[in-house]
Amino acid sequence: MIKLEHVVKAYGEQEVLKDISFEIAKGELVVLIGPSGCGKSTLLRLINRMIELSGGRILIKDRDTRTLDPVSLRLGIGYVIQSIGLFSHMTIFENVEVVPSLLQQNKKLRRERARELLDMMGLEPAQYGQRYPKELSGGQQQRVGIARAIAADPEIMLMDEPFSAVDPITREQLQDHFLGLKTQIDKTIVFVTHDVDEAVKLGDRICILNQGLVQQIDSPKALLHKPANDFVASFLGEDRELKRLSRIPVTDVMRSGAHPEARTIEKHKSAKDALNRLLAGENSLNVIDDQNSIIGTVNLQDLQG
Ligand SMILES: Nc1ncnc2c1ncn2[C@@H]1O[C@H](COP(=O)(O)OP(=O)(O)OP(=O)(O)O)[C@@H](O)[C@H]1O
Ligand SMILES: [Mg+2]
C-alpha cells in the first residue's frame, strides 16, 4: 500500500532522514518509534506531502506521490496529530463531518456515520454531538480527532502521537478503543509514538528509527526477543522480555483446571495484564470466556514458564 524507496529528507545541511526504505502492506499498522528529533513526524509529513522529499520516492498503491495532486492525496489520508486540531467554532458533529461535507456527501448519511463513529470511540452522540470542543476533556477531544480522521473513510491513516496528551489511564482506554476499532475498519495505519509499551500493544510491526536510518523493522515479539543491535536493545529497555508479555494472550499461558478461591480475568486479556494482577497480590487467576465460564487458571509459575 505504501512503499518508501531510499527516502532522504534534508533541512539545509542537516540530513534528518538519510536512506529509508520499507513497505507497509494493506491493512497493516506500522508504528514508528525512536528518540525525539529522529524524524518520525517528518516521515509522516512526507507521506501526505505536507513537505517534499529531498531524495528517493514514496509510492502509494504503486503511484509515485509526486505525480498525485496534493489536495486529493490528503483528502484520501486521515491525519491525526497530538494537538488534535479540532475547529473550535464547530460542534463535535460538524468537526467529524468536515471531510464528508467537503466531499458533498449526503447530510443525513454523514450525520448517521458521525453518530456511529462517536459511539465506536465511546462518546455518546446524543450527549456530545452538539457540544463545542472546549466543552470536552482532552481525551474526549482526541477521540473526536480520531473519529474525524476515520469519517472521511480514508484507506490510509497517519497518526502522530495521537494519545500523548492524556493521563496514563485515559491513554490505556483510548488504546483499547482504538484496538477494538481497528478490527472493524480495514485501514493501513502509520502510527508515531515514543512510548515502547504503546508500540508493542498496537503495532503489527514496529519500525525503530535513529540517526536517519531504520535500525530494525519487525513484529513486536521478534523485536523484543531479538533486537538487531545495541541501540535497539537499549531503546527497548532491560525489561523487554516483560514487555513481550503484553502481546501474549493469557490463554497461551494458562493451565487447565480452576482454582477454587481465585478471582477471574477475561480471556482476551494479555499475559502482562495477568502479571500485573498477580504482582498486586493475587495468588491465582481463573480465566473466563464471554459466558463467564472458567476455561483455565494461571499463576506466577505459569508466567515464569
Ligand atoms: N522545518 C524545519 N526546518 C528545519 N529543521 C527541521 C524542520 N522540521 C523539523 N526539523 C528538524 O528535523 C529533525 C526531525 O524532526 P521531527 O519533527 O521529524 O522529529 P520527531 O522524531 O518527530 O521528534 P519528536 O519525537 O520530538 O516529535 C529535528 O532535528 C528537527 O529539528
Ligand atoms: Mg514528532
Distance between the termini: 39 Å
Classify the helix fraction into a percent range.
25-40%
**Structure class:** alpha/beta
Full CATH superfamily name of the largest domain: P-loop containing nucleotide triphosphate hydrolases
Q: Under the CATH scheme, which architecture of the largest domain would be assigned? A: 3-Layer(aba) Sandwich
> What ions, cofactors and ligands are bound?
adenosine-5'-triphosphate, magnesium ion
Q: Give the count of structural domains.
A: 2
In spatial order, strands of the major sheet run 6-7-8-3-9-10
The DSSP helix count reads 15
Uncertain segments are: none
CATH class of the largest domain: Alpha Beta
Order of helices and strands: EEEHEEHEHHHHHEHEHEEHHHHEHEEH
Defining traits:
CBS-domain; 15 helices; 4-stranded antiparallel β-sheet; 2 domains; binds adenosine-5'-triphosphate; 13 strands; Rossmann fold; 6-stranded mixed β-sheet; alpha/beta; 305 residues; binds magnesium ion; 25% strand; globular
